């Protein structure tokens, strides 16, 4: 499906050398969602995918999201993405040639032929770690699901924010995973104690609580650092199409760290607190305090209004504004430009905001993957983007 | 598959597929290969498996696997009896023996603490370790556990238990691998290497 003439024309485009941008330069899909096979040549400029509902635009950007760490923008399991068709064969796979901070590389991911329920990922032919993918292919995405981010559950907001933290700090995923594991093990011991009446091993609980404190403070510190850079970007930005937001993290540990407490002291305090509230957490069946309970608060600065109380369009603009600010922060602070995936992002935006979004993406220099039903939605990109028509699992350059 | 080859082969494949590192496809390939090499491979392999099942037992002292109890390492007069290296599995013991970097004795825990998997201190070979640590000859316990969350939980737990045992407790260093380039290391490993600098 690749258009060779377009490939040649775009290959002369080279990103600024001082800010390496992550981007996909070739994408091959096999038996993925509604794609039997696809071979798409690209450069690192923004990519606009245009097609009717159900054509396969989101499937394509989901494939891109599979190149980064995690389970992709739909959080799908390895078996869920296999092409659902009578003539489907073998296992699904995604191969990509990508530009990274370390230069051009090959990434491949797909179902394990021996265990189709498991996904395996290769970087330059070797098994890839999640942190290595996070470092080489920082990525952020917004989907229609994030339209309800501010009015929806707290956990969705923190998942969104943690993805931004991960793009800045690949070690965040390890700390979060270690924290969660220690927390689950502690809860299991407390649950067994509650169910059997047999006292849990206090020494074991103490170790798990110490680990929760260590990794929990690391998580909170990474979140705070991202928040500070993000707020700084928002504050420094001249008036733009997107509203300015005031951000805060309302969590016990984040508050202590932001007030200047030493990390070691916060760790000790949190570990003691966990030991003190064992009966409470045992009865509740979950830990009621810790960074897993932190809330992200966002206010529309100009309107002095909580994000959840803003109009649908303003809520969308606030989310987009945050994602763009984080992309700028990554460029300025970490010296790398992430891949952005904005699925149906223009749906609730007026023309001025659509143009503002295109202008911001071009200014950042990111390879943003945009989807929409109409080519006119992307007019603001002018000649600065690649445009493809998506139709029933076929992709052709426009 | 079973209709074409019979329940015996199917059972062989199912059992082979339970081995670590083998999926159903690899198991099928291995079964077919053995059947094609019946005399050269399959029969000697079956005899070797039977002999190992009959003779090999865990060492009552350290948990190593051997034909004798205590095992050859525990009985060896050439090994340093003052230091005990604690490992998660016999596979880890073999890895350290291949490296030849340690001349003391071992203690195999048989797993790591994981409440979620139902593995607690009582399921591990910890009481025996505490008994060995309390012996007069023992001076150092080296914790050579995996750098996973559960591995480190177990290391902390044992360290706490040994706090008043009168022995030195050390852990393997973490950081830059031999021949490794800093540019290719993840942030966690680099941080650990800095903390362990000397």
Provide an overview of this structure.
- Chain A is α/β, with parallel strands linked by helices and 398 residues long.
- Chain A contains eleven helices and 15 strands.
- In chain A, strand 1 and strand 2 form a beta hairpin.
- In chain A, helix 4 crosses helix 6 (202-236).
- Chain A is globular and about 65 Å long.
- The termini of chain A are close together.
- Mean pLDDT of chain A is 90; it is low at 1-17.
- Chain B is an alpha/beta fold and 198 residues long.
- In chain B, the strands form two sheets. In chain B, strands 4-3-5-6 form a four-stranded parallel beta sheet. Chain B has a two-stranded antiparallel ribbon with strand order 1-2.
- In chain B, strand 3 (83-87), helix 6 (90-99) and strand 4 form a beta-alpha-beta unit.
- In chain B, helix 2 (7-16) crosses helix 3 (24-36).
- Chain B is globular.
- The model of chain B has no long low-confidence stretch (mean pLDDT 91).
- The interface between A and B is medium-sized, with 31 and 24 residues.
The number of distinct helices of chain A, counting runs of at least 4 residues, comes to 11
Beta-strand content estimate of chain A: 15-25%
Compute the CA-based radius of gyration of chain A: 22 Å
Low-confidence stretches of chain A: 1-17
Give the end-to-end Cα distance of chain A, rounded to a whole number of Å: 11 Å
Helix-strand topology string of chain B: HHHHEEHEHEHEHEH
